[in-house]
Write a structure and sequence with these properties.
The protein folds into three domains: 81 residues, Uridine Diphospho-n-acetylenolpyruvylglucosamine Reductase, domain 2; 127 residues, 2-Layer Sandwich (Uridine Diphospho-n-acetylenolpyruvylglucosamine Reductase, domain 3), CATH 3.30.465.10; 81 residues, Uridine Diphospho-n-acetylenolpyruvylglucosamine Reductase, domain 1 (Alpha-Beta Complex). The longest helix is centred in the C-terminal third of the chain and has 19 residues. The protein contains eight helices and 18 strands. Helices cover 29% and strands 25% of the residues. The radius of gyration is 19 Å and the shape is globular. By secondary structure, the chain is an alpha+beta fold.
Length: 302
């Protein structure tokens, strides 16, 4: 890492929000990963913008993360800068049938705000363990719903300057968006929902929560669905048919409860998770001719 970057960052953030050699296993839902050379915690749009501009000019590698729910960090760590956007950018405002949320707002909290305001359309996202910003990167979805169905517009940082993109300009498709393609940074998301009955919205959220408890291995650390859904098929079904239910390397395992999940059953390293992912890809390709594509974002050297 370019040591000169420290001086640039110290002009933008106070020392207590600049962490050196920060262990990433405490910041990811896999509970694995080595250390980030620098881990930064901006609290304002001005600080975040300043960091993006400074890092862009320096040429230093950086990665912007939310709550680490779809992230696998190498055991060797990340020899660059990680910027975390979570509770410091997590305000939620309801106006009529619209909800405006900071990039760090958890989807579960946005769903609760919608329910309390008798707004429907966001129920599908109530159990997705991510933030509004992360959901824009991946066009997160579940149970037949996707972010592209409910997003009105998104405020992005492009080279440190804010610009609002409409739903159409976000270019959403299955598990991707212009944010993922271009590496833009999400600041704020405005959602457009519909008026509904609070009791009906709550009932739907409870039903989806029940389905998740029954079908997903929520008792183990994971990043949710590990693989993207192949067109016309299901990753979990293909993995099961390839005889990989419960397949394990070290502490990482294909879930016996839902084969579409790779879980940390205890003491797993990122290397274990990575090896399981690669072996699953290999065996499923051999069995079905379909190459599964990971949904999990991986950073660092594997």
């Amino acid at each position: 890492m370019n040591k000169g970057i420290y001086d640039l960052i110290r002009d933008i953030l106070p020392e207590e929000r600049i962490l050196e050699n920060e262990p990433m296993n405490i910041h990811t839902t896999f509970r694995t990963g080595g250390k980030a050379a620098l881990f930064l915690m901006p609290e304002t749009k001005e600080e975040l913008s300043g960091l993006i501009k400074a890092l862009g000019k320096s040429g230093e590698d950086y990665f912007v993360m939310g709550n680490g729910s779809n992230l696998l960090v190498s055991d060797r760590g990340y020899d660059g800068v990680i910027i975390q956007i979570t509770e410091r950018f997590s305000d939620i405002e309801v106006s009529g049938s619209g909800i405006s949320a900071g990039a760090g707002a958890l989807l579960s909290r946005i769903a609760d705000a919608a329910m309390n305001a008798s707004l429907t359309g966001f129920e599908f996202a109530s159990g997705i363990p991510g933030t509004a910003g992360g959901a824009m990167v991946m066009n997160a979805g579940a149970y037949g719903g996707e972010m592209k169905d409910v997003v009105k517009d998104v405020e992005l940082l492009i080279d440190g300057e804010p610009r609002t993109f409409s739903n159409e300009e976000m270019d959403f498709s299955y598990r991707r968006s212009i944010v993922k393609d271009k590496g833009y940074v999400v600041l704020r998301v405005n959602f457009s929902l519909q008026e509904g009955e609070k009791s009906a919205v709550l009932t739907e959220m409870k039903e989806l929560a029940r389905k998740r408890r029954e079908k997903q291995p929520l008792e183990y650390p994971s990043a949710g669905s590990t693989f993207k859904r192949p067109e016309g098929n299901f990753a979990g079904k293909l993995i099961m048919e390839a005889g990989l239910r419960g397949f394990a390397i070290g502490g990482a395992s294909v879930s016996e409860k839902h084969c579409g999940f790779v879980v940390n059953k205890g003491g797993a390293t990122s290397g274990d998770v990575y090896k399981v992912i690669k072996e699953v890809q290999k065996k499923v390709l051999e069995h079905s001719g379909i190459m599964l594509e990971p949904e999990v974002l991986m950073i660092g050297e594997f």
